[in-house]
Design brief:
It is a single chain. By secondary structure, this protein is of the alpha/beta class. The protein has twelve helices and nine strands. The chain has helices spanning about 15-30, 45-50, 70-75, 95-100, 120-125, 145-150, 170-175, 180-190, 195-205, 255-265, 270-275, 280-295; strands spanning about 5-10, 35-40, 60-65, 105-110, 115, 130-135, 160-170, 210, 235. The strands form two sheets. It has a seven-stranded mixed beta sheet with strand order 3-2-1-4-7-6-8, with helices on both faces. The radius of gyration is 19 Å and the shape is globular. The relative contact order is 0.15.
Length: about 300
């Protein structure tokens, strides 16, 4: 059995503070030794050093930065119609099994997440011979998204999954040449994909992946507000992120806001993140926008304990 837990994250320099926050939350809740691999889309040495300062607090992790030339690697992919917050580096997750082919099973996780329980609960999920485990995006069952699924060639009975948290069986992935197949799908169809790599993953793994409990990718913005058990991974997947909101704000519209800032405080980036939330006018605008998201998605935020 593989004792260490390999975890891949992807970031450019702008999102370096949230790499550190995610890592802090994992290490604070996990007893196992975690091997972090950062798919690096241009993180400066200064910010790499700041991320690594977490070693002053935690001794249960290693970290390696893997430089990815996204412009060259994904030059054939047309991603011009992607939502503005989706960059070409989102395709980095396609590469994971080719970068470290000797690993048996790995976790990929977006950096707009915090971990609230031991991540081993996700890692030791049985994939039952599937290449991939992911959480069904309940919001995708709504009629407008059903129509979108049809437009990209997915059948109505496919349970569209959210790709921010993935559990990958490296051996089966390689055996089925998944990385190349994903690239082929993306190159052929990315011009019509709104959600880019996530759409490509769903098309390739249509009705052929292990469905994980939503507590492993708890996305309130998608209307998933009833996790099956205690939340393990909280994913802030809307355009309004917890780092946009001042940590002293009293609101139930952003579940786990306090926990995010508790982990951010453990990083070398806390002061700069905090300073960006001190404009009262901007804060009022953000909270109004967040209220619109909640009303639009018919979310009933679960009150914190």
């Amino acid at each position: 059995m593989q004792n260490n837990i390999p975890i891949f994250l992807s970031s450019d320099n702008n999102y370096a503070p949230f790499v550190a926050t995610t890592i802090a939350s994992i290490c604070d809740n996990t007893k196992s030794f975690c091997e972090f691999y950062i798919l690096d889309g241009g993180i400066t040495q200064e910010n790499q050093d700041k991320i690594c300062e977490l070693k002053k607090q935690f001794d249960n992790f290693s970290i390696e930065f893997l430089k990815i030339n996204v412009e060259e690697t994904f030059k054939k992919i047309n991603y011009q119609i992607a939502q503005k917050y989706i960059t070409l580096s989102t395709y980095n997750r396609f590469l994971i099994p080719t970068l470290y082919p000797d690993l048996k099973k790995v976790i990929y996780i977006d950096i707009d997440t915090i971990i609230l329980e031991d991540i081993k609960f996700l890692y030791f999920q049985d994939l039952n011979e599937y290449c991939l485990g992911a959480v069904h995006d309940i919001k995708s069952d709504d009629l407008p998204f059903q129509q979108y699924k049809k437009s990209i060639g997915l059948t109505q009975n496919h349970k569209y999954f959210q790709a921010g948290v993935l559990l990958i069986d490296i051996g089966n992935w390689k055996k089925n040449n998944v990385s190349q197949k994903l690239m082929d799908v993306a190159v052929k169809n990315s011009s019509k994909y709104r959600l880019q790599d996530q759409d490509a993953l769903n098309v390739l793994f249509e009705n052929n992946y292990k469905i994980l409990d939503n507590r492993y990718n708890y996305c309130v913005a998608n209307g998933v507000n009833n996790p099956e058990g205690e939340v393990v991974i909280r994913h802030f997947n809307s355009q309004i992120k917890p780092w946009h909101i001042n940590p002293n704000t009293k609101t139930d519209m952003m579940p786990h806001l306090k926990e995010f800032w508790d982990y951010a405080k453990k990083t070398a980036f806390y002061d700069e993140l905090y300073q960006k939330t001190l404009d009262n006018t901007q804060q009022a605008d953000i909270l109004r926008a967040l209220r619109v998201v909640i009303i639009t998605n018919k979310i009933r935020p679960k009150k914190e304990k």
